[in-house]
Amino acid sequence: MNELDMIREQHLNNYKNAVLEIIKNNTNSLIDDDIMSLIKEPPLDSMDVIKSKILSVAKNKKIVVKTDEMNRVIELYRNSVMGQFSFFRKLRIDELSKNISSFSGEKDYEVIKITKKQFSDLNKKFNTHLKKSLSDFIEKLLICKLEQIFILELEQDQFREIHHELSKYFKSNYKKQLIENINFKMLVKDTTLINGVKEQGERYIFTKSHSRINQIENIV
Q1: 117/122 Cα distance (integer angstroms)
Q2: Which residues does residue 65 pair with via DSSP β-bridges, in sequence order?
Q3: What backbone phi and psi angles, to 5 degrees, belong to 184?
């Protein structure tokens, strides 16, 4: 391999590695910062929609809640949901970076692109997985655990009312709002990633046109 080929290959590899790093950093930030902030325990109890709803219903029914047990149930639910995002982290990085290794850069103005269709297909897969996982965890780790978080044994009719109200909230309003917030976070990060990869491509083309590669080719 001559000097020109070595310079060209190094420049290409630097570009591909930079795009891959952008994808990884964007995905990690999306999950660890944006999405996790919607699921993990808020800094203030007043911001905790799960606790607030349970306590509000209990107050209206004049029932005392086992705070420690409630916290344990909610923590288990949250940890289980957060654990699901390791699937999305790998899926997103793998799907968005699968064209990087095959990119040759042979054409003068050819760059790596991430399209809106890629995001559409990817996010559709994720949303299908997310909706099912949330439904399962809400049912098994929240709704099925409701009876054990109240101090007094409840009359059947009374518990049925509480169970119905909380079930309806968690399965509808809570779930819907959480998915909408997650999708909004994803949309913002998707747009940021498209722009970041585009800027990296422009930098690659500019450097390629003004680097030693071009100078040597002109001399030759």
Answers
A1: 8
A2: 150
A3: -65, -45
Q: Is residue 19 within 8 Å of 105, Cβ to Cβ?
A: no
How far is CA 209 from its chain centroid?
A: 37
141-152 per-residue burial string, b: 16 or more CB within 10 A, e: under 16: bbeebbeebbee
Q: How far lies 210's CA from each of 14, 122, 217, in Å? A: 16, 36, 11
Task: Indicate if the pLDDT at residue 20 is higher than 90.
Answer: yes
> Do 162 and 146 meet the contact criterion of CB atoms below 8 Å apart?
yes
Crossing angle for the helix pair 156-169 and 49-60, nearest 10 degrees? 150
Distance of CA 40 to the CA centre of its chain: 13
Contacts of 49 (CB under 8 A, 6+ apart): 174, 177
Give the model's pLDDT for residue 63. 84
CB 192 within 8 A of CB 26: yes
Supply the pLDDT for residue 64. Answer: 85
